[in-house]
Amino acid sequence: xxxxxxxxxxxxxxxxxxxxxxxxxxxxxxxxxxxxxxxxxxxxxxxxxxxxxxxxxxxxxxxxxxxxxxxxxxxxxxxxxxxxxxxxxxxxxxxxxxxxxxxxxxxxxxxxxxxxxxxxxxxxxxxxxxxxxxxxxxxxxxxxxxxxxxxxxxxxxxxxxxxxxxxxxxxxxxxxxxxxxxxxxxxxxxxxxxxxxxxxxxxxxxxxxxxxxxxxxxxxxxxxxxxxxxxxxxxxxxxxxxxxxxxxxxxxxxxxxxxxxxxxxxxxxxxxxxxxxxxx
Length: 280
Fold this sequence. Notes:
Blueprint: H1 6-10, E1 18-22, H2 27-34, E2 40-44, H3 54-65, E3 71-75, H4 81-90, E4 96-101, H5 107-115, E5 123-127, H6 130-134, H7 136-140, E6 145-150, H8 152-159, H9 169-181, E7 188-189, H10 197-209, E8 214-217, H11 223-229, H12 234-248, H13 258-274
Parallel strand pairs: 1-2, 1-8, 2-3, 3-4, 4-5, 5-6, 7-8
């Protein structure tokens, strides 16, 4: 029952670029998501499902995770009745990779979520309000927090912020700095609503420039483009390969910028290898 792209299945979630939200409307929707190029698949039983359908979607997600599928699950806000039902259904699910906690606003919410699941279950804290963004440093250091994610739509509704890179720069920067303080992987940015390749590329450029390393995805067909735009470019890989070759031959630089450049080259090589690009 568990169909999964082998490259994506083997990629550590700390490196995941595309996080595909897949509402459990039916089993085929989940199978299609797991067969996509998404680095991580998230069964979405929060915003992706209306309230009257949440019980059925939760049951379907839990059944799939106990019958060969492996994925993350976006659950409902901490403290709600739906959250309690989500934890009860997912506790012990064999294929659960972790949860994405919607509308996270405090470190305690992450800790309580982790306590309600199997010990060690990672939690992606989805920050979707002004309070959540302001508490980002504390949430990043909470026990169980795996990565931070930015819920752009709800954040804009909560704060009245516009949908430009400038208007959202503070929030994105705060998640990036908080992730560094909490020694977490880079945060996950919000989704792109357009299917226009140029719009997707520009959105990914903003994500990368801000220091974020992943992106929520709403459609399976967007995943390959987002993976490409959030990975090292061919020119970066060529530069890193050249510098590493020179270093191996003892032909390194002597100025103060050499060690930082060498460190960057090694990081690019590791990422490119993880994404299957180093020897392509």
